[in-house]
Design a protein that fits this description.
The complex is a heterodimer of chains A (77) and B (305). Chain A has 77 residues and is mainly alpha-helical. Chain A has four helices and no strands. Chain B folds into two domains: 118 residues, Thiolase/Chalcone synthase (Peroxisomal Thiolase, Chain A, domain 1); 162 residues, Thiolase/Chalcone synthase (Peroxisomal Thiolase, Chain A, domain 1, 3-Layer(aba) Sandwich). The chains are: A mainly alpha (77), B alpha/beta (305).
Chain lengths: 77, 305
């Protein structure tokens, strides 16, 4: 099991959000901080922290931070 | 640019045109659709009629591929001196009438031509190469219009919005950046690990790892995953951007030239990766390394030898 709070904190760092915490149900693509560069940073962070690489096709299906966490978990299992 | 590079290098090496048995031109910006640019360069360099010349149409993995082919052909024994000319020149950098698309890509890409000379030597350290392909990713980096699949039409000159909302023409190169990133950080570290294992080398045994200069974020991720210290991994990206098949030799002659010239046995592993999808790693030793200083071409383009 990956620690969801820890994952959200890592995403907060990637997106350089300091003034609030993220929730698992939040749709990351709707955030003003989300960009193509943030996307690459997210893939790199997941690779570094969880040793998991999510393909571009699979990532397109993900909507919320919770979806990303579940995708990592599925690939770690 | 490749012609000037080759002339400078041949003069430095004191190679005569008639000495050269093989010329490979590797690029995706050929002079003409036909004939092969290698033949055009053969004429311009005044090479002998016995010289084998052909093009390899590969991009970022091209230098590794072309060197692999040249080295393997030398094993046959009839080829002693070969020129591998690589580079890209899409005519963007010097063109004042840039299109909307070209304005966007200019900060990312550069234009360069390179010449690499290799010579057969009995008892030289072997050149080891591993080359890979994943053709299922052929659309990840693609120029759709102008080939036989979609021959030139007037509509190819029109700007259209694609599924991601980006505006470009069928004649422009398209890239799915995230897919390339995932490909690079997955496959390249695996290929580096593979060649190290196969040749019995460790990261410590290698003096330099020269990567294709794709982008800093991807290259750094590959470097960190492969546990390569930063001092062994030079970059020319900040000066010249991504030059496709020219980027590996360009990095060698602009970043570590002083460290290679006059030194015996520097162990180098170079890795090219990109359009195809195609990637390759090559392990070689430099001995009696020669590199004339890089040149600027017509004040617009930068040429390197």
């Amino acid at each position: 099991m990956i620690n969801t709070n820890q994952f959200l904190a890592q995403m907060q760092e990637v997106l350089e959000i300091e003034d609030r915490t993220l929730s698992p149900d939040e749709k990351f693509r709707e955030l003003s901080e989300w960009s193509s560069l943030a996307y690459l940073s997210t893939i790199a962070m997941i690779d570094d922290e969880y040793n998991v690489i999510i393909s571009a096709a699979d990532f397109r299906e993900l909507q919320t931070f919770g979806d990303i966490a579940r995708a990592i978990e599925k690939r770690k299992a | 640019m490749c012609q000037v590079s080759a002339e400078k290098l041949m003069a430095e090496l004191e190679w005569k045109p008639e000495d050269i048995d093989l010329l490979i031109f590797c690029s995706q910006s050929m002079d003409y659709i036909l004939p092969a640019t290698a033949c055009v360069l053969h004429g311009k360099l005044g090479l002998s009629k016995n010289c084998t010349c052909f093009d390899i149409q590969m991009g970022c993995s091209g230098w590794v591929y072309a060197l692999n082919v040249a080295a393997n052909m030398m094993q046959g024994g009839s080829i002693k001196k070969a020129l591998v000319l690589t580079g890209e020149n899409e005519g963007i950098v010097g063109d004042e009438g840039r299109t909307e698309y070209e304005e966007k890509v200019i900060p990312l890409f550069g234009e360069a031509g390179t010449a690499t000379a290799i010579q057969f030597k009995q008892g030289a350290c072997p050149i080891e190469t591993d080359t890979y392909t994943d053709g299922s990713g052929y659309e990840v980096i693609i120029r759709r219009g102008g080939g036989c699949r979609h021959p030139f039409r007037l509509s190819h000159f029109c700007y259209r919005k694609d599924q991601y909302g980006l505006t470009h023409r069928a004649l422009d190169n398209e890239m799915d950046g995230a897919a390339v990133f995932v490909f690079g950080i997955s496959e390249v570290p695996r290929a580096i690990k593979g060649i190290l294992q196969r040749t019995g080398l460790s990261v410590d045994d290698v003096d330099y790892f020269i990567f294709h200069q794709a982008n800093l974020m991807m290259n750094e991720q590959i470097r960190k995953k492969s546990k390569i210290p930063p001092e062994k991994c030079p970059y020319s990206l900040r000066d010249f951007g991504n030059n496709s098949s020219a980027s590996i030799p360009l990095t060698m002659v602009t970043q570590i030239r002083e460290q290679l010239i006059g030194k015996q046995h520097r162990k180098i592993i170079a890795c090219g990766f990109g359009v195809g999808l195609s990637w390759g790693v090559i392990s070689f030793d430099t001995q009696s390394f020669v590199a004339p200083p890089p040149l600027k071409f017509n004040g617009l383009y930068t040429t390197y030898t």
